[in-house]
Design brief:
three-stranded antiparallel beta sheet; 25% strand; globular; disordered N terminus
């Protein structure tokens, strides 16, 4: 037996291929606890069931969470937005949902992010468990596919009417999801990866923590400096 030292080093990843700077993956077994997988910095891919990747991602520690003045402003702006939580196994994946997602991703990112077939797989319930349905005046205008356990919600794939992209709806959806998680006694809500300047909007909540490759870090300025250096 030869003892080894393990060195973890970041490099610029290829996000479209799920190649993130740490390049460490995990394959969950039946006996593995999903909450513990998240706690170790892993997020699920849509490539293969029970396939997780280590990444710099953000979560909110809900035991210490409270709304900031900016959070409250967003909620006032989106006070008519209604959230409903549904299990994916009971949610019919219809054309209107696929069309809404396609239009959103095309306008938001100027390129094809996910195919209709991949989206259908996400809604199958094989990878994720629930979908948050958002309504305005009784019309379904947005969705977010989530992973939900007794302790955790992973706010994974949000999308909404493309005509609302320049409004406060996106932040309203996320803020309401955090409130929902808090009200339903979850310990954490995970908000996805943070590698770009445009992803820093996820940091505007109290009790934010980011995974630094080894542990959960609360130093927001360190995170911002790291992202600025990477995106020069």
């Amino acid at each position: 037996y030869y003892p080894m030292k393990y060195i973890f080093k970041e490099y610029k990843g290829n996000y479209d291929k799920y190649e993130y700077p740490y390049l460490i993956y995990a394959k969950a077994e039946k006996s593995d606890n999903v909450d513990k997988i998240y706690q170790k910095g892993f997020l699920p891919t849509r490539i293969d069931k029970n396939h997780y990747y280590l990444s710099r991602n953000i979560r909110i520690n809900l035991s210490d969470f409270s709304l900031t003045s900016e959070n409250k402003r967003i909620l006032r702006k989106t006070q008519d937005l209604i959230l409903e939580n549904k299990e994916l196994k009971n949610f019919p994946f219809e054309y209107k949902v696929a069309k809404l997602a396609t239009d959103y991703f095309k306008k938001k990112f100027k390129k094809k992010i996910i195919s209709t077939q991949s989206l259908k797989r996400l809604f199958s319930g094989d990878f994720f468990t629930n979908v948050l349905v958002y309504k305005l005046e009784n019309e379904e205008i947005g969705y977010c596919i989530t992973m939900e356990t007794k302790e955790t919600i992973h706010y994974a794939y949000p999308f909404y009417k493309s005509s609302l992209i320049s409004t406060n709806i996106g932040m309203g959806m996320m803020t309401k999801a955090i409130e929902y998680a808090k009200e339903n006694n979850k310990k954490h809500i995970y908000l996805g990866t943070v590698y770009t300047l445009s992803s820093l909007y996820k940091t505007q909540f109290k009790s934010m923590e980011w995974f630094d490759g080894i542990d959960w870090n609360k130093d927001l300025e360190k995170l911002k400096d790291k992202i600025r250096q990477e995106n020069k």
